[in-house]
Amino acid sequence: MIVIVGAGPAGIAAALQVREFGLAFTVIDDNPTAGGQIWRGDADRTRMLGGELRTGTRVLSIDAAAHTLLVEDADGARWVPYSKLILATGSRELLLPFPGWTLPGVFGAGGLQALVKSGLKVGGKRVVVAGTGPLLLAVAALLRAKGANVRLIAEQAPVSALAGFAAALLRRPAKLLQGAGLGWSLAGVPYLPNCWVTSAEGAGQVERVTLRRGAKTLTEECDYAAIGYGLVPNDELRTLAGDSEDVIVAETGDVEYAWLAGEAAGYRAAGRPLDESALVAARAFDAALQGAFALRPELRELAAPETLVCRCEDVSYARLAAWGSFRAAKLQTRCGMGPCQGRVCGAAVRFLFGWPDTSVRPPAFPARIASLAIQEPVTNGDKL
Amino acid sequence: MSPRFPGNGTRRGESLLTMIRIWVNGAEILVEPGSSVAAALLSNGVAVFRHSVTGEPRAALCGMGVCFECLVQIDGDLQVRSCQVAVREGMRVTT
Ligand SMILES: Cc1cc2nc3c(=O)[nH]c(=O)nc-3n(C[C@H](O)[C@H](O)[C@H](O)COP(=O)(O)OP(=O)(O)OC[C@H]3O[C@@H](n4cnc5c(N)ncnc54)[C@H](O)[C@@H]3O)c2cc1C
Ligand code: FES
């Protein structure tokens, strides 16, 4: 049985490809609904997976030598065998610490988008959208369509970098059309390049944010702030799997890139040859994007000494800065040892201090105690 | 368009009859089916979901199951990520 982890565009594309080759598969996803970040809850797009889909199920660990996965759902945990494993686990947002970022009402940019897609009402709410990348435009457009009062979009990249992005778009006309559509739905919303949030303030929840724009400072009253600094791949499972021929990683990026990568993963799982030129083009576009929206060094200076970097264990910037590596800081401060297992602070710390996170240990998600008690893989065709 | 076509209807005209009733800290609220618990809490004015290890107020951040800032108690289950759970009739949520 081919097991696919992730039911976003990449996982769905892999599944449909594998099905086309007539092979049996199962798709596992942690979310209550399929669709991943972009088609979250979009029944039309995800229905095609049919009965082979297990949502509300997360993969905690991989034993690549034994070809088994430790999965957990509402009924508990068990080891599940696979013949080939496709990891289509997508990405999460890079969230950078700044004074006030722990206030309720401050979300990731994609974070607020995901909450709106899962039913959050934003009608009449004043929202500041900030951070970097084309995702900000998609988020602002969705918020606006749902009746929010989007005050402004602050893009940290300088105008010159955005020009590079526009040039890349010209080489991919389909994207340009998407961009034009977004521009139309965002008419009237100020889009400020060279601008970033330096602090959020409020009593018990966010009431205003302060932004820097070049040498100027501005303040904006808001009910919600949606701030994201790009995407970080969810590669914990890949790290746990190590180098294994039977573990295939589907790259992720924008939705088209993820789809192509998923298809390619399906070909590889089936051992079929594939013309990868479309995938190669998508990869190049992604690289151009990463270049255009590179993070400015000033963002490293946002956190004050007392600003919390690890939100699970409440570890401040000053306490972390005293150590020379993530490993030492973890041992001494418990940074990254809370429930999120460093998923939020790990990438932030990498950006702030240049420390690589070298210490992924199973489980990839904090498991219930009962799940951890199951140590021996069961390889006798245990059904999902 | 056929009424059976999924994702076709807007929520605007939805009657109260199709709403789901849940209990938040003992108070009844009505929410749309399919909503996540986190979205339901925020939409109904619950701004604080939990307090951190040093007592700071916190609420949902990532919306996608990664950050664990949205932990609440659901039907006696401690520490559930409210962004990853859909509302169910009669559910009891404690922040
Ligand atoms: C918050 C957010 C918002 C985004 N919004 C947009 C947008 O508006 N437009 C756009 O073009 N791109 C957007 N992106 C980029 C987006 O990731 C891609 O466009 C697209 O979703 C990629 O598809 P994917 O299949 O690679 O990953 P995803 O869609 O992220 O799907 C990965 C799936 O894997 C599951 N998963 C991960 N780890 C595990 C595990 N251990 N066990 C079980 N399941 C697991 C996740 O629950 C998820 O459903 C967004 C990204 C993020 C993080
Ligand atoms: S909001 Fe981050 S885990 Fe729920």
Walk me through the structure.
The complex is a heterodimer of chains A (384) and B (95). Chain A has 384 residues and is an alpha/beta fold. Chain A folds into three domains: 131 residues, FAD/NAD(P)-binding domain (3-Layer(bba) Sandwich), CATH 3.50.50; 135 residues, FAD/NAD(P)-binding domain; 51 residues, no CATH class. Chain A is 33% helix and 23% strand. Chain A has a five-stranded parallel sheet with strand order 3-2-1-7-18. The N and C termini of chain A lie close together (11 Å). The C terminus of chain A is likely disordered. Chain B has one domain: Ubiquitin-like (UB roll), CATH 3.10.20.30. The N terminus of chain B is likely disordered. Chains A and B meet through strand 9 and helix 3 of A and helix 1 and strand 4 of B. The site of flavin-adenine dinucleotide has 37 residues of chain A, from helix 1, strand 4, strand 8, helix 3 and helix 4.
Q: What's the structural domain tally of chain B?
A: 1
Would you give the CATH topology of the largest domain in chain A? FAD/NAD(P)-binding domain
Helix content of chain A: 25-40%
Give me the strand/helix succession of chain B: EEHEEEEE
Poorly predicted tracts of residues of chain A: 375-384
- What fraction of the residues of chain B are assigned to beta strands by DSSP? 25-35%
Average of per-residue pLDDT values of chain A: 88
Instruction: Determine the structural class of chain B based on helices, strands and strand pairing.
Output: mainly beta
Helix content of chain B: under 10%
> How many helical elements of chain A?
13
CA radius of gyration of chain B is: 15 Å
CATH class identity of the largest domain in chain A? Alpha Beta
Largest sheet of chain B: 5 strands, mixed
Q: Structural class of the secondary structure composition of chain A?
A: alpha/beta
